[in-house]
Amino acid sequence: MTKESLIKIEKLFKTYKGDDEPALKNISFTIPGNEIFGLLGPNGAGKTTTLNILCGYYKKDSGTVQINGYSLDKNLKEIKKIIGVVPQDIALYETLTARENLRFIGNMCGMRGKKLNNRINECLELLSLDKSSYRLVKTYSGGMKRRLNLIAGLLHEPKILFLDEPTVGIDVQSRTVILEYLKELNKKGTTIIYTSHYLEEAEQLCSSIAIIDYGTILIEGNLQSLIKSKSEYSDLETIFLQLTGRKLRDN
Ligand SMILES: Nc1ncnc2c1ncn2[C@@H]1O[C@H](COP(=O)(O)OP(=O)(O)OP(=O)(O)O)[C@@H](O)[C@H]1O
Ligand SMILES: [Mg+2]
């Protein structure tokens, strides 16, 4: 697998039980290595479904997925070792402290003792949670929970990090801390696959993107090349609105 295709998705289909319409209809795209890749689309487009299939949380109906040369069907165990997942819904124990949450998650990833403790301290400091790390998570603000949710997904230093709307509903301060941290991680070699509704943020962060709508990929590729490809594409938001239209998805 080359740097050009760290993740390769081909002809992916998924229909949830009880749904008439497929959530994913023949999805194919490639994610280059060492990049920050944005999977963007309106509400209900299929972003979370795609990420959850790539992480092995949901089963696909058909299609193939290769991650770092491993087949999702045959090598899920190997894939799980090299990926980290930060879910859209906060996945933390409210009645445990931040440290207790991270120790538990670290143990689940096979991390122990001093190494785990050092890693927890490092992450808490980098995301400005060191001073509040002995507080119960239920006393945390939304921004603190998002930052802790992020640490939970990358404690084991994954090569590939999947982030589902990591900056939703938080203030500018928390957002800036998270985005700066993601840029640093990427500089050190982590490939990041990220979904968001904040197109300005995605434009600043992502080198490559795919736009998904109604379970179909509408466009994919290097963001700057896409912007230059048509005179009417002045920025990411223009591309997004031209391709997805203005119709509401949740009425
Ligand atoms: N567990 C489920 N059972 C049935 N249908 C589902 C389930 N999860 C998602 N869907 C449907 O699949 C489609 C894609 O949903 P998905 O959550 O992947 O979209 P999304 O792009 O992540 O949206 P959002 O931006 O709102 O998070 C939607 O029509 C949604 O209603
Ligand atoms: Mg979603």
Give the names of the bound compounds.
adenosine-5'-triphosphate, magnesium ion
Query: Mean pLDDT score, rounded?
Result: 94
- The name of the CATH superfamily reads P-loop containing nucleotide triphosphate hydrolases
Measured between the Cα atoms of the first and last residue, the distance is 42 Å
Sum up the overall morphology in one term.
Answer: globular
Q: How many helical stretches?
A: 9
Task: State the order of secondary-structure elements, H for helix, E for strand.
Answer: EEEHEEHEHHHEHEHEEHH
Largest sheet: 6 strands, mixed
Count of domain modules: 1
The CATH topology is: Rossmann fold
SSE class? alpha/beta
The strand order across the widest sheet is 6-7-8-3-9-10
What is the beta-strand fraction?
15-25%
Rg over CA atoms, rounded to whole Å, is 18 Å
For the record, the CATH architecture stands as 3-Layer(aba) Sandwich
Number of strands: 10
Question: Low-confidence spans: pLDDT under 50, at least 5 residues?
Answer: none
CATH top level label: Alpha Beta
Task: Describe the protein's architecture and organization.
37% of the residues lie in helices and 23% in strands. The strands form 2 sheets. A 6-stranded mixed β-sheet has the order 6-7-8-3-9-10, sandwiched between helices. The protein has a 4-stranded antiparallel β-sheet with strand order 2-1-4-5, with helices on one face. The protein has helices at residues 47-54, 76-82, 98-108, 113-126, 142-154, 172-187, 199-205, 223-229, 236-244; strands at 7-14, 24-31, 36-40, 62-67, 70-71, 83-86, 160-164, 191-196, 208-213, 216-222. The longest helix is centred in the C-terminal third of the chain and has 16 residues, at 172-187. It is globular, with a radius of gyration of 18 Å. It has one domain (3-244): 3-Layer(aba) Sandwich (Rossmann fold), CATH 3.40.50.300. The protein has 251 residues and is α/β, with parallel strands linked by helices. The structure holds adenosine-5'-triphosphate and magnesium ion. The site of magnesium ion has 4 residues, from helix 1.
